[in-house]
Specification:
The chain is an alpha+beta fold. It is 30% helix and 29% strand. The protein has a 7-stranded mixed sheet, with helices on both faces. The longest helix has 19 residues, at 503-521. It starts with a helix and ends with a helix.
Amino acid sequence: MGEQQVNKTEKHLCTGLLAHVDAGKTTLSEALLYVTGGIRKLGRVDNRDAFLDTYELERARGITIFSKQAEISLKNTKMTLLDTPGHVDFSAEMERTLQIMDYAILVINGADGVQGHTETLWRLLKRYRIPVFLFVNKMDQAGTDKNRLLEELKKRLDGAVIDFTGLTAEGGSTEQLEELSVCSEELLEEFLDTGSLRPSAVREAIRSRSVFPCYFGSALKLTGVEEFLTGFEEFISYPEYPAEFGAKVFKISRDEQGNRLTHLKITGGTLKVKEFLKDGEAEKVNQIRIYSGSRFETVGEVRAGAVCAVTGPVDTRPGQGFGLEAESGSPLLEPVLTYQLLLPPGCDAHTMLKNMRILEDEDPQLHITWKEELGEIQAQVMGEVQTEILKSQIKERFGIPVEFGNGNIVYKETIKAPVEGVGHYEPLRHYAEVHLLLEPLETGSGLVFETACSEDMLDKNWQRLILTHLEEKKYRGILTGSEITDMKITLIAGRAHVKHTEGGDFRQATYRAVRQGLKEAGCRLLEPYYEFVLEVPAESVGRAMADIERLQGSFDAPEQENGMAVLRGNAPVVTMRDYQREVVAYT
């Protein structure tokens, strides 16, 4: 019995809930909490008492804005359930949460089927290689057709979406087993040899994303929820974690007292109170909190697999890795509009800038900048819903009513050709020299830094310092002063003086080397494009095609289905940004 108890606490799983807005994701999280005894009373989004919509604005609007967590106890598993925002304007928050998920539950609205944002979510899940269970919700609504929905899921998401209704570890119907067996070579071989499938083989196929189990029900009426949970627990496999410490930061927030919280998942070893996240740095953990909704309990240590919030560290950021965890790459969904913050009369811009830096700390995608020459604060935002929410957040937290000016497009720049940049810094009693190789990378690579300098030429410590300086700054291009991206910077040579070199000298030399390289190589301007899916009634497709050509976009041949036409393509943000209003008007 003692043995069993140990196993029970060891098995920890981190599962995220994802969906297009209004599919009933928060309602499903309420149902899961209720069925497993996590809450005694079922809250409702429209009654504004959902357990996980803890933020006043979320209750008022009926949408999830910030990712939240709840602890759920299944039969043999402790599960951290992460409820992520469904609205595309808050997709950065959702994408950061994706990086720590073991499994995802994708909620589909049975009344609407697969929607535009559902496909974006599916692409993100594929990018981060996360196994997915699907729950088709709202099946209690009139006109929902299970077979038609299953067909649509297979066609628009993946052919390996399989109906798991009635399928257990003991077995299922012959049709289900046959359907399962064609999802991977291993399953097919086993099915042809034995006429059945071992549960462990099915688990492995789900974990490796060869199979996507699908369940049907209604979260509001609690139908199909227990069956989904039973199936989920039967068909998951537990991740193996290394003994060495690792942790990944996915969110920064503040509690009601204003304490800074770093939310992280432990991906190896253990973390104890009063330990440091990073050797030799002042990032000491004062308190470890396990949150469930707005409540939390404090613990002395957490093991691999757990998700917690820690107080103490002040210089952490989402996407950062500690121990054996690497830094995350740049997100797939990025804001493409810059808005000016319009302050009320008598409001001090510098005080406001400090406040906005607090918000940027929590959401790095805001990219708050202070334009000295214009004397204005600018923020990068995904769209209108996010500006609305930001206005209420600023009013609530700092008591200042602000507005946002018209959005401007966020351009970027990259270099045209490989080049060597040399930086030299040598005032009296100072000396540093840095040689960098700057090379263009393919679109979407972001900035990459490495060193190819021999330690005989430059001590390892100086090399590390140069790389730190390279990583801590955003570089501006020479055409429009836009941020540089898609470039690799390699340290190829450098020199220090035994007596006269100080740390700051290398910062100067490094930035001069980058600047000189950019000037020499010349820059190209990169314009942001939307990748769009436009769904309009078939009779309006001619107008839509003419519009997109007028907006300098391109698209594939339209697909027709059930009286609707679907256009997929790309178009520049600058021409396309207000187009959705036009679509609403003419359809």
